[in-house]
Amino acid sequence: MKKENFAEVSTQDLRDRLVEMRKDYAQLQINHAISPLDSPAKITHARKEIARVLTELRARELNNK
After folding, report:
1. Which phi and psi (to 5°) does residue 37 adopt?
2. DSSP annotation of 37
3. What is the pTM of this model?
4. Dist CA 28 CA 64 (whole Å)
């Protein structure tokens, strides 16, 4: 999801998506520890997506104050 798309998504949807993304990230880490992934870049991509969502949530929090 690109940063431009975050403006169209509600805060609650972002929080729900964040929970799912964190679960997926944890599962990727576990799978990679057991047997190497075909593309370890998936782990990096997942971590960056989580950071983008957290950044957007924090920006919304600061704008509402």
Report:
1. -75, 155
2. -
3. 0.86
4. 34
